[in-house]
Write a structure and sequence with these properties.
Blueprint (H helix, E strand, L loop, with lengths): L2 E6 L7 H16 L3 E6 L5 H12 L5 H25 L4 E4 L6 E3 L8 E4 L2 H8 L3 E5 L2 E3 L5 E3 L5 H11 L4 E6 L20 E3 H9 L7 H10 L3 E5 L7 E4 L12 E5 L2 E10 L4 H11 L7 E3 L6 E9 L3 H10 L1 H4 L3 E5 L2 E7 L9 H11 L6 E5 L2 E7 L3 H13 L1
Parallel strand pairs: 1-2, 1-9, 2-6, 3-6, 9-11, 10-12
Antiparallel strand pairs: 4-5, 7-8, 11-12, 13-18, 14-16, 14-17, 15-16, 18-20, 19-20
Helix pairs in contact: 1-3, 2-3, 5-7, 6-7, 11-12
The structure holds adenosine-5'-diphosphate (ADP), aspartic acid (ASP) and magnesium ion (MG).
Length: about 400
């Protein structure tokens, strides 16, 4: 008998009809003789609605209280799904993070899973119950509720698949797999039958929200096969794994974009050793992901540093830097949120010269201006105006997949 972990995203459980559709996928898997552990996200736009509700009360609410609020969305989903499955006549139980020992660190809103205590889960599965777990949430060592970051239910699912030694972790969503670009932006994007963990990790990190990047990182470390498929069609999905079949593989796997970034510029820092260390360790201690960094050459003992962070962290970064203004010794801070990052990803670019140039050519032909460029072994990213992002993705996709 196999143990299967299935995760259903917010749009898959958005209303009563969809809840029953998903309930039937779950009970069908159970009827096939499997133990089934299911992870659910909050319904539809619930998480965004809760964030908006909080902002009406206090736009600077602490991350602890935000986690307390946001975790409610997932709790609602599992309870409602359990009611649907009960109605279909199957044994089921819904559980929150604190009931299954989903232990995380204490970094509210970006917590990392430390351990999962499987005792309760095993007990329920042994009773032949379908187990529904609230995604996205965790509990720290003080017993406080934490959340794993937006899109984090995917990571809950992979963590459970690892802890329960599941044979597969299936991520059900509103697209039927991983595409060469977001199919909402590029209608003729192609579905990939398979993709490597490394390429998927890059795509997810660079903005392809179809999978939470931590979920891919975890799946890779433990070799958990991940399958991305649709809640709405029976089409075969995309397998995410270590090695893929190379037949017909192009050297670019996909194009991703991230509009949720902000550019911060710190002007007039002292041009002495240790400045970058002080700035970035301050941000790292609050687990702010700094992406691209550019430092100007010094002039008259002063220098500037420009870098990008997730847009949601921009105002927190400003607070943090302002609070430490004296210690950091800078003249001025500037935040710009009209930027986006567009990237191409592909392991094949290591052996193919001129890939970046082809990307820049496509942008030039559309007269899209590049502000910053960053590259690694398997990706090239450009920072451009946010208003140009969709157009850039389309022309770059056209350039490589035409
Ligand atoms: P869920 O609520 O199920 O977690 P998400 O909205 O987080 O779903 O992720 C699915 C969405 O990811 C799709 O609707 C699609 O618009 C977007 N997406 C972005 N890039 C890609 C890609 N390369 N392949 C497939 N979907 C993508
Ligand atoms: N509900 C959370 C979010 O909207 C987590 C998730 O959907 O994975 O980000
Ligand atoms: Mg998601």
């Amino acid at each position: 008998m196999a143990l299967i972990v299935q995760k259903f995203g917010g749009s898959s459980v958005a209303d009563a009809e969809r809840i029953f559709r998903v309930a039937r996928i779950i009970t069908k898997t159970y009827d096939a003789g499997n133990n089934v552990c299911v992870v659910l996200s909050a319904q539809g736009d619930t998480t965004d609605d809760l964030i908006a509700k909080a902002a009406e009360i206090n736009p600077d609410a602490s991350r602890r209280e935000m986690d307390m609020l946001l975790a409610c969305g997932e709790q609602m989903s599992v309870a409602l799904m359990a009611m649907a499955i009960e109605k279909l006549g199957y044994p089921v139980v819904s559980l929150c993070a604190w009931q299954i020992g989903m232990a995380t660190d204490s970094v509210h809103s970006a917590a990392r899973i430390r351990t999962v205590d499987c005792e309760r889960l095993r007990e329920e599965l042994d009773k032949k119950r379908i187990v529904l777990v609230a995604g996205f949430q965790g509990v720290n060592r003080h017993g406080d509720v934490t959340t794993l970051g937006r899109g984090g239910s995917d990571t809950t699912a992979v963590a459970l698949a690892i802890a329960l030694k599941a044979s597969v972790c299936q991520i059900f969503t509103d697209v039927d797999g991983v595409y060469t670009a977001d199919p909402r932006v590029v209608p003729d994007a192609r579905k990939l039958p398979e993709i490597t963990y490394d390429e998927m990790l890059e795509l997810a990190t660079l903005g392809a929200q179809v999978l939470h990047n931590r979920s891919v990182e975890l799946a890779k470390s433990y070799g958990v096969p991940l399958e991305v498929r649709s809640s709405f069609t029976g089409n075969p999905g995309t397998m995410v794994k270590e090695v893929v079949n190379d037949v017909e593989k192009t050297y670019i796997t996909g194009v991703a974009q991230d509009k949720k970034i902000a550019r911060l510029a710190i002007f007039g820092l002292a041009d002495v050793p240790g400045v970058a260390f002080r700035v970035f360790s301050l941000l790292a201690n609050s687990r702010i992901n700094v992406d691209m960094i550019i430092q100007s050459t010094g002039r008259e003992g002063r220098k500037d540093i420009v870098f990008t962070v997730p847009e949601k962290d921009a105002s927190f970064c400003r607070q943090l830097l302002e609070q430490n203004r004296t210690a950091l010794d800078f003249e001025r801070l500037e935040i710009n949120t009209d930027v986006a990052k567009v990237s191409i990803v592909g392991a094949g670019m290591q052996e193919n010269a001129g890939v970046a140039a082809r990307m820049f050519e496509a942008l030039f032909q559309e007269q899209i201006n590049i502000h910053m460029i960053s590259t690694s072994e398997i990706k090239v990213s450009v920072f451009i105006d946010r208003a140009d992002a969709d157009r850039a993705v389309r022309v770059i996709h056209e350039q490589f997949f035409r």
